[in-house]
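Fold this sequence, please.
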Amino acid sequence: MLAQDIMIRSVYKVKEYDKVRAVIEKFIDHRISGLPVVNDRNEIVGYISDGDIMRNIGKKSDRVIDFMYFSMIVSDPCGMEEKVADILEQNVMKVCRKKVTTAPWDMDVDRIAAILGNRKIKKLPIERNGVLVGIISRGDVIRHAFGTMIGHG
């Protein structure tokens, strides 16, 4: 079985010039936690997850003050609402990961499973000729690998 056999073809995504606000709206509207970031040619240029956004909020929460021999973390006095408002207006490329693990559309599903497991990622964008054509989650692999064995497929 190949990636193209189990991938989700209608992929929720955001454009590289979108604001984080568009990401959050898609997270909420579609009950998802990660999105590929694409350019106008539908090539993957990043991936943004709820974890990336949390790390960004955390960066805005604490400041590190470096002294000669040690560092100290100091809480930033600005409130959560202000941090969130600031992040919502940031360009998605400032928050997303730019090194994205992807797989070709004709890769065997057992190799897809290995990538998802070994790299500890939840979703894997699928490409064909450098263009986003689908996405596969851990759940997709499990449903297809075990579904027929337990009578659900």
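The mean pLDDT is 87. DSSP finds seven helices and eight strands in the chain.
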